[in-house]
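Handout, section B. The chain below has 283 residues.
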Amino acid sequence: MAVQLGGTPIKLGSLPLSVVDDAGVTWLPTKVKGWSSPGVRAELHPRQADHGAWASPAYLDARPISIEGLIAAPTTAARDAAIEQLYTAVALTDTVLVVEETVPKQVTVRRSGEVLVELVNPYSATYSAMVTAADPRRYSTTLQSQSTALPSTTGGLTVPLTVPLSISTTVVAGSITLVNEGNIATRPTFTVEGPVTNPTITVQYPDGTVRALLYGSTLEVGDELVIDTDLHSAVLNGTTSRRLYLSGQWPEIPPGTAVEVGWYADSSDPAALLTGSVRSAWM
């Protein structure tokens, strides 16, 4: 069984970088650069005949991260096998890098430079790997996910009775709450399961303003539509783009804010379901 070392645990894909693993190999990260803050993309245009400059909107740039560390193994074969594990973990495809801070956070990275390995002796090596997160935001490792059916009212009775009589109604609100505990806006993903016709998703902010997304088509029984508000995409059943049928405003959740997500549709079916998912985000 792997033994966790002291310090802040780091994991790249399925490879923990702060442990003594089952083969007796010690993985010890010695330096991580780029985790604290990405660069900023902005422009300044000088004011003519005046002091200062006009500032454009500022955006975070991609986040390059370099990881340096030590591999110490009980045998040369174990050292070499560990090096091959490292080459595999620093992948050319999307890989999740997790840093177990007080609030654990993750980014999705790809290899963006050489993986440099220096053999120190028959049992150990040092390494340096460069990866880059195209999305610079650091996300919570905890995914919030809530679901709701369409709003509906059942029960109740209206008849000309004079005796004391009370028959209660049951109201399904058709809403959920999503929270961003971080310090930069984050963008949710919505999954709509049919059957439903022309569903509209609304996001209400604490000041009362509302952003809405309308899907102007029908989802049949068994259909699943995934709306990614970061990628600005709508994908039906995992394969077919339905972005053409989507209109409205792309919502996001400001830092330190809870929003109420609701929905309604032209048709009401108890099997229809909306699921909202989001991760809190930090700069």
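Note. The mean pLDDT is 92. Compare this with the example in section A.
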